[in-house]
Every structure is written in C-alpha cells, then in structure tokens.
Design goal:
Number of domains: 2
Helix content: 40-55%
Distance between the termini: 81 Å
Strand content: 15-25%
Low-confidence stretches: 1-27
C-alpha cells in the first residue's frame, strides 16, 4: 500500500469513526416525547366520544372553575395553566370565575352551588374527593350546565369530559420500573397523595397489581403524604427509623412527597449512591436531588398543564364539537442514565431534565415555558 493510499484509508476510517460516534451521540440524546398520548394510541378499547351538540351556543362564554385547592405547588401550576388558557382566548371567554375550596369537600360543594347561580355556560371542576362532589356535578349537568373535570374525577359518570394524564399508566409504569430495577425482589415502601382523592387511589391500585406479579417483592408499608414535601419528609423519616436498610425501593405517586423523601434519606446520613431507587413526577426538587445524590430515579410526569387542555376542551364543548369522555394529555418519562429497564425506557434523561439552577419547588411540566416562576406569574384574562 502506498503512503497516499494508507493516508486515504486512515482518513476514511477516521471519518467513519466520527460518523459512528456522531450517530451514537445522537441516539444517546433524548429530548422528550412530543407525539399523541401513548395511552390513547395503545388503548385496547374503543374510545368513547361525547356528542356535545346540545351544549352548542354562541360566545363569548362565562366559565367557572371550582378548584379543590392551591395547597401545593402542582395545584398552583394547574390554576396558572387555566388562567393562561383564558388569557389566550379572551375573545371567546368573557369571564372566568375561580373558586378555591382549600381541600374542603363541603366548601367545594357550596362553591359549585354559588357558581351555578352566576350564569355559567360551562363549569370546570377539579374535585377535592370523588364521592363528595359527585352529587353536585350531577346537579349541574341536570341543570343544563356542561361539566368538564380536570385532574380528579367524581365517582359517577354524569359529566361531559375528564381531562387527565392516565393515573393507572403512571402507577403501573412506576411500579414496573421499580420492580425491574430491584431485580424482581426486595421491599418497597409506597407513599401516596391524599386518601380518597381519585389520582392517589387509582395509582395505588394499579401499582399494587404490578407488584403482585412479583412474588419476591414485599410492600413494607403504604402511607399518605397529602402531596406535601414536608409531610413526605416526615413520613419517610419515620419509615427509615422503622425499617432502616430493609428499604430497597420507594414508590412515590408524585415528586411532591418524593422530594421530601429524598431529603429524609440525606438527613438520615445515607451516602450518595446508596439511597434506594425512587420514583418522582413533575417536581424539580425530586429529580434535582436524585441527580445530586446519585439516586436511581424514574419520573413519570402528571402535567398540571392539563389545566390549559381543560379550557380548550370546554371551548370545544360549547362549539358543539364531539370530545373524548376521557381526554388524556401527553406525559414524559425521565430516567437516570443507566437505569432503564427491559419494560420502561426514557423519553429524556433525568440528568438533562432536572434544573439544577432552579428552585426545588419548580414544577417542570406546566407547559408555561422554561422561565415560568409561580411567584411572579400573571395572566391577563377576563375576570
């Protein structure tokens, strides 16, 4: 081989290596799933659509929003996304009337009764509990006021549409990842949100079904945290004291208590890289601490940005357009590098998803942009 031929071969080889490395890097990068919600694409049932022609009317509209509470930062994000949707549709919404029940089901029933006296064209409800709000939601429907539920549902089915991210998919996927990441054996702690709230109960039931498929996995305990970082920390601290290194995994149905749980491990003296696998959702503090302390983590978003979608569904209802009985929004899965399992793959890496430069209480999935700050947010909507 001549020197020139040798150099040519070397350059070609170098080029091929660079191309291969570039492709590998491209394959390694993950920037999130942006397609149609997979829970709809993969549904094994016919999707139910609701004929809304009887609700069709000319705008602009008066819409009421009965909120269970703004007792945690996720619910603040939900409220802000609804306000932003109203601001973006000022020509169609003449007034958005908002009430806050402070997590009191009785107050929320009274709130809805008051709203129904204020000439609403449509009512959006995020119920405190499924059972308590069911009768008043049915009453609204019977009075001819269409109801769109968001985040949480009522126990009956007398409503037009329920806007959500699949709670069952969240609970099931988190549990599947946890079980596989633990090698199909060990002890799991379950920390859920509010007892009786439909998202918490649906997620728990789905997760338990998955864990039951693994005979060598034991659920050590199930505790509720009210979706509070402070209470999550308190609950986790008590469980660490009770079970110690028997804990092989912590299934949280949200990053709210997940953030507190990680703080409890760190304050109890668990070294970086030694904290057991944990699940998160939405809250920056949960994934941020997982990165900082080298914790295997899987985050399944339950985006408060669904509030925006609930307003868009409401406008479709009032336009007489058919809408799904259950409208499921998209959700991303983020996993720490090296911790994908055979069944659960990442849409993005947690190391890229976590905002190390932003506060722990930032909700990452509001849909309100990378600079969203709940303390300064303002939306110019018709009140």
């Amino acid at each position: 081989m001549t020197i020139r031929a040798g150099l040519t071969a070397l350059l070609l080889a170098s080029g091929m290596f660079a191309l291969t490395a570039s492709l590998a890097t491209a394959q390694e990068a993950k920037d999130g799933y942006k397609g149609k919600p997979r829970t709809l694409l993969w549904a094994s049932r016919d999707l139910e659509y609701v004929d809304t022609s009887k609700f069709k009317k000319d705008g602009p509209y008066v819409i009421g929003f009965s909120n269970a509470s703004i007792s945690n930062i996720w619910r603040v994000g939900l409220l802000h996304s609804i306000q932003q949707a109203a601001a973006d549709n000022k020509d169609k919404i003449s007034k958005l009337i908002i009430t806050d029940a402070n997590d009191d089901p009785s107050k929320q029933v009274s709130d809805v009764q008051d709203l129904l006296q204020r000439g609403l064209d449509l009512l959006i409800v995020s119920p405190a509990t499924a059972q308590a709000l069911d009768p008043i939601v049915s009453q609204a429907m019977d009075q001819g006021v269409p109801v769109v539920l968001v985040d949480r549902r009522v126990s009956g089915d007398n409503y037009v549409s329920f806007v959500t991210a699949s709670d069952q998919a969240l609970g099931r996927t988190m549990a599947q990842w946890m079980a596989e990441r633990m090698g199909g054996k060990g002890n799991v702690l379950m920390i859920a949100g509010i007892a009786g709230a439909s998202p918490a109960e649906l997620r728990i039931a789905a997760a338990k079904q998955v864990f039951a498929e693994f005979p060598d996995i034991k659920i050590l305990d199930l505790q509720y945290s009210d979706w509070s970082p402070a209470k999550g920390k308190q609950v986790m601290a008590a469980m660490i004291q009770k079970y110690g290194d028997q804990i092989n995994g912590v299934w949280n149905d949200s990053g709210l208590q997940g953030s507190g749980a990680l703080e409890a491990f760190v304050e109890a003296g668990w070294a970086d890289g030694k904290i057991p696998p944990i699940t998160c959702a939405d809250l920056n503090g949960c994934v941020k601490q997982a990165v900082q302390h080298k914790v295997p983590v899987m985050s399944f978003d339950y985006p408060p940005g669904m509030g925006y979608d609930s307003v868009m569904v409401a406008l479709k209802v009032l336009a007489g357009t058919p809408v799904p009985k259950q409208y499921e929004v998209n959700a991303d899965i983020a996993i720490s590098k090296g911790d994908e399992t055979v069944s659960v793959k990442a849409d993005r890496w947690v190391e890229d998803y976590a905002r190390l430069d932003r506060p722990n209480d930032l909700i990452l999935s509001t849909g309100l942009g990378p600079d969203y700050d709940p303390s300064t947010f303002s939306a110019d909507y018709n009140k």
